[in-house]
Amino acid sequence: MIAAETAGAVTVGPIQAVLVAVLVFIGSFFLVVGTVGLLRLPNVYNRLHATSKATTIGVSGIALAAWVYFGPAGEGLKGLVTILFLFLTAPTGSHMISRAAQRMGVEFEEGVTWPGHTDSEPEEPADTD
User: Fold this and answer.
1) Which spans are transmembrane here (predicted)?
2) What is the pTM of this model?
């Protein structure tokens, strides 16, 4: 056993290194796209869509790179668990923020309607208290 392995360093082959680099690049690309969407899109619904999708894919790409780099056990397993929780929590959180915006009366952009409605007005909140 060499000294670098005992210090926690991981040795990867050239294929693994290329795969890790590609996954980190893809993840970073989607995170940048989500950030641009957050800064450029006009309202909360559009921004929410851009950030939730891009964050889910971007962070999953980077966590998948960690799994490839560290292997299926230990630190790599944490990458897979991160992906699992991200796919469970990001859509739920986005949905809750969207419903909160709808209940606060935030309207869509002109010409956009709620699914199943012909007008752009959001439905009335269920609880008015």
Assistant:
1) 15-39, 51-70, 76-94
2) 0.73
